[in-house]
Amino acid sequence: MTEGMNDNILAPDARTPLLLHACCGPCSIEPVELLRREGFEPTICWTNPNIQPLTEHDRRLATLRAWAADVAHVNVVVAGDDRATWETGVAPHGFDRAARCRACYALRLAEACRTARELGFSYVSTTLAVSPYQLFETCGDVLAKTAAAYGLTPVWRDFRPYYPEATRASRDLGMYRQNYCGCRFSAAEAAIERHEARDRRKAEREAARAAARATR
Ligand code: SF4
Q1: For ligand 1, is residue 27 a contact (CB within 6 Å)?
Q2: How do residues 15-31 score in pLDDT, each as one tens digit?
Q3: Which of 109, 170, 200, 216 is most solvent-facing, going by the fewest CB within 10 Å?
């Protein structure tokens, strides 16, 4: 998508303003371009109190800001990052991922919608719709309900088919890419999944070697 990305895109002042909640730089690449192709002009809204530790949060925000300024030429608004409310409203769900992520989406998208209202936007969307690791249906449901509560129009698209392209483009640009969603629970879950995948690969290699020995 990045090749010839400006073809057939309206001039910025002819597009419809939209506030785009962004979880990180790499996940913003494709949604910004696709929304522009649809006739929207996104302004990115950063509100991610879920990202732990704070150094990781700051690294992702810096990566997003650098890409937005140097590559995408998109404005970035830094909204509230209420880490205390994340701890009291989201963290108690622990490893109940469905409940935890729903609460996490609700907190972040409520702040994005509040910011959209404050800044005069009518349309709101989120880059969370690009990652196959997110709970897509849950996130869409939360965005629809939260946008309605704030009198906004949700722009919910299935950006997931563009995730491989986002991965390639962000690597080509040398952007920092994290290997977990954001919270400490997701870091532990991702580490377990990596260990399990490594163990599976090891077992497969050993089985293949045993099968090769048996046929000699
Ligand atoms: S896995 Fe991601 S979306 Fe779910 S609670 Fe953790 S940071 Fe939030």
Answers
A1: no
A2: 999 999 999 999 999 99
A3: 216
CB of 50 closer than 6 A to ligand 1? yes
For atom 3 of ligand 1, the residue with the nearest CA is 101
The domain ranges of the chain are: 12-179
Please determine, looking at this structure, whether the domain spanning 12-179 carries the CATH number 3.40.50.620: yes
Count other C-beta atoms under 10 Å from residue 37's C-beta: 16
Task: Tell me which DSSP letter residue 144 carries.
Answer: H
- Ligand 1 center to 214 CA (angstroms): 46
d(CA 56, CA 85): 19
Beta strands (DSSP E) in the chain are: 16-21, 40-46, 76-78, 123-126, 153-154
> How many residues are given for the chain?
216
Strand ranges across the sheet with 40-46:
76-78, 40-46, 16-21, 123-126, 153-154
Answer yes or no: are the C-beta atoms of 8 and 31 closer than 8 Å.
no
Amino acid, res. 176: Y
* 78-122 tens-digit pLDDT: 999 999 999 999 999 999 999 999 999 999 999 999 999 999 999
Instruction: Give 152-167 pLDDT, tens digit per residue.
Output: 999 999 999 999 999 9
Closest by CA position to 107, among listed 139, 152, 76: 139
